[in-house]
Structures are given as C-alpha cells and as structure tokens.
Amino acid sequence: MQRYFVPETDWDNMNVTIQGDDAHHINRVMRSKEGDSVICNHPNGKAAICEISEIESSKVYLKIQEWLDTSAELPVEVTISQGLPKGDKFDLIVQKGTELGAHSFIPFNAERSVVVWDDKKMDKKMKRFAKIVKEASEQSHRNRIPRIMPMMTLSELIEESSNYDVKIFPYEEEARSDHHKSLGKIVKGLEAGQKLLVCIGPEGGFSANEAEELTKNGFSPVRLGPRILRTETAALYTLASISYHFEELGCN
Amino acid sequence: MQRYFVPETDWDNMNVTIQGDDAHHINRVMRSKEGDSVICNHPNGKAAICEISEIESSKVYLKIQEWLDTSAELPVEVTISQGLPKGDKFDLIVQKGTELGAHSFIPFNAERSVVVWDDKKMDKKMKRFAKIVKEASEQSHRNRIPRIMPMMTLSELIEESSNYDVKIFPYEEEARSDHHKSLGKIVKGLEAGQKLLVCIGPEGGFSANEAEELTKNGFSPVRLGPRILRTETAALYTLASISYHFEELGCN
C-alpha cells in the first residue's frame, strides 16, 4: 500500500488531508478513487491505514481506519555526519542511508572536502535532500523521515557531539593497524534508545589534525572491514551492519 | 601505495611488466619515477611491493621487492546474482559490491526486469563492468578482481546454483511475515571457504513463480531488516552484513 508522510497540521481527529505534490500523486499518478486506502505516517512516528473519502484537484480527504503498530525504525538512533563529498554522492548517501534506517544526517565541512557549499547553493541543496529523504522514507516504509541538519565545521560538530552516547569515525589508518578497535565491540555495547554519531571523512579522508581532534573529544576510530571503502560506501556499511546486528542477528 | 592488477603473462620470476592503461597511469597520472614503488597483484591473489626499474612510454618494468601476506578477501565466497535493474544501477552494484568483497557477479534476466541487454549492447557492457571491478579492486585493496559471469535466465541460474553451498534470496513478502528466516542464522551457519549465492530481484521484485522455483531449488527466502530496500541496496546490505559478521564482530 502506498505511504505518505503527512504534516501534523493536516491531522484532525479521525480526518487526514493530503495536499500538494502528494495529492497530485494520489490523483494523477496512482489514479486512486474514493474508497481506496493508503497508509498515512504522522510525524510522531505512528502510521494509520486511511480510506479516501473525497478527492479534489489539489486536496485529498481521508478517514483513519486503523492505527498500525509496526515499526521499521532501528533500535539505535544513528546520525551520519558526512564530510562533504564530490558530485552528487551526498544524494546517494541520504537516499541509501534513509533506506538503511539513519535517524539524521549532518553535512560536515572537512579539511579535505574539495567542494564548497555556499549559501546560494545551500537552500536548493537542502530542499533536494528533504525531497530525497521523504521519498526514500515512503518507499522503504520508514515510520519517520530522517532529519537533515545544517552544515557544520569540525568545532561545531564536536560541540554537537555532546548530545550523543557513542561516537565513532572510520579511519583508514585504523584499517591498516593490527590493534584496530572492532566495530563489533562498539555495536555490541549499544543499548536500545541510545544515540550513535558516525563521522565519515570525504574522499581524501581525515587530516591527522581532524583525527586527533575527534579522538580527543571521545570519538573512537574504527575500521569497516579490511578493504578500503569509498567515502559514500562507509555510511552504508555502518548502517547495514547495525541493522544486521540488532534486527537480523539478534546478538543483543 | 598505488595498486595494479597485472595479468599472469606479465610476471616472470622477479620481474613484472605493466602495460597499456596502467603504464599510462603510472607514467602520466601518478608521474612516477624509476626507484618508486607500487603494489602489483597477481591473479592468484598474491601481492608484492615492486620497484620501478625502467619506464617506457607504454611499458613499465618493475622488480619484485617483497611479497605481502595480507589478505583483504572475505572468508566466504559471495556471488551476487542481480536481476537486471534499470539505468546504470548495475554499475553501482558492481562497484560497491567489489569494495564490499563480492567474489563474483551474475546478471540475471528476471521476469520483471524491464531492460533488455541484447547481444549488441552486451559486449560493451561487459567491458565497462570489467573496468569498474578492476578499478574498484585496486582502490579498495582487494587481492583479487571479482568475476562478472555471463547473463543467465532463471533456469540457467538454478543449474549454476548447484555449485554453491548456501543459496538465499531476499524476498519482500518475507520481510512482512512474522515467521521470516533470519539472515543472521544463515550467516552464522557459513564456514570459511564456503560459497554463498545471493539472488536479488529487479525493481519489481520476484514474481510468485520465480520465488517458488527458487525455493524448490534450495534457495532460502530472507529479509534484510524490516525496511524495504531498493534493488541496488540489497546486495550492499548483504555484503556489508557478512563482512561485519566475520571481519568485525567475530561471531564465528
């Protein structure tokens, strides 16, 4: 069944109104009729099966039939702080990261990031990311849409990091060392409801200075297997591993 | 250190010759000089640090300095049989799948594949995939380049599947069922050196007929977490989970 994330203001008791692009999607793309059902997601994470009672050109009115109690959210809140990558890789990371259960994304302006996200581009970029995460959330049956936070510098990210229970950063030097910290050990230590911050370097990796600053501020360096992953693959490896650990392996 | 995969015929005792595009890469892109070192990978999976002894315009001559005993290969041989997806998604799957340790790839002409790979396109496609897996192997420090096998139909794939120890297929219906088979249970049962075949449907998923045929022929349906993944994300989830399990969690 098709899913739509509906803003809080469009819920009223047993009635839901879908507007804008989503109303167009129901009307013109899905060619739904009165009496058809869709799933509406509330921003609080709940979802309900709703029946279409009336279709106007730019508004669709629905009645709640049944609240669902399924959750497709990871038990741990994982935030991906991604060093600004080249090209459209950030699009790929937010799309796949949403499918894989990320809670939030923070674009991180790293020392070796070669792209510049200036104020002029920022607004357009943020709107595109918001569209990607909404569509990926609907497609992957998420209960909530991940948040895209404003771009941060290293010092802003370190300040933000005080809000998290566990902080890690994949570090290539770590993958080469015999005494690397095991990602498994860190994930095993996570408890449901905890917040994990994963800081990922851009194409050129972290500078020695960044790695030192992160370590000093409680981030543990980790490796993600013995192979060297591209920057856009690191977030996907981390999220898939956490999903596998808690949702498929049942190690905890 | 830069890595190059060198065909068997270009190894002779303590001497290695790098030709073609890779010679151009050493000469013009890396601007290497005599006395510089690179890592050469032999098709048998071994790798050696080699010193450049002479540079010609289209050939680079090297001497083996030291054989390396590191391996970046997954302990289990994972073959991804991917239902032909739309657009350039197969490129993404072979690139990321190589980074994540896949042993081989099989393009699978599924019932719901909407694209057609005809003979005319096939040769060009296979050459592009070969280039992608070689470059991704070098970049991710693999010991061997994954193999791209010819496109197969369902019955050809089922015949091929007799060469594998364990066979699975992610199935959306499975993700919705309460009695789904746990991927963790299957991965836990794998032993080093075993061969795993993962069959992934295209955008529209498997038809009921395909799912039945696969099940009848020893493929276990699995889910990859409770979220619905796009076709190109399924291979990456599976490979990352297997890497995490054996290489980072050390569950076995």
From TrEMBL, chains A, B:
Organism: Virgibacillus indicus
Family: Belongs to the RNA methyltransferase RsmE family.
Secretion signal, residue range per the UniProt entry: none
Molecular function per GO: rRNA (uridine-N3-)-methyltransferase activity
Role this protein plays: Specifically methylates the N3 position of the uracil ring of uridine 1498 (m3U1498) in 16S rRNA. Acts on the fully assembled 30S ribosomal subunit.
Record-linked PANTHER family: 16S RRNA (URACIL(1498)-N(3))-METHYLTRANSFERASE, RIBOSOMAL RNA SMALL SUBUNIT METHYLTRANSFERASE E
InterPro entries attached to this UniProt entry: Alpha/beta_knot_MTases (IPR029028), PUA-like_sf (IPR015947), RsmE (IPR006700), RsmE_MTase_dom (IPR046886), RsmE_PUA-like (IPR046887), tRNA_m1G_MTases_N (IPR029026)
The EC number(s) this enzyme carries: 2.1.1.193
GO biological process, one term: rRNA base methylation
Name of this protein: Ribosomal RNA small subunit methyltransferase E
Enzymatic reactions: uridine(1498) in 16S rRNA + S-adenosyl-L-methionine = N(3)-methyluridine(1498) in 16S rRNA + S-adenosyl-L-homocysteine + H(+)
Domain Ribosomal RNA small subunit methyltransferase E PUA-like: 18-64
Keywords noted in UniProt: Cytoplasm, Methyltransferase, rRNA processing, S-adenosyl-L-methionine, Transferase
Compartments, as annotated in UniProt: Cytoplasm
Enzyme class: transferase
Domain Ribosomal RNA small subunit methyltransferase E methyltransferase: 73-242
One Gene Ontology cellular component: cytoplasm
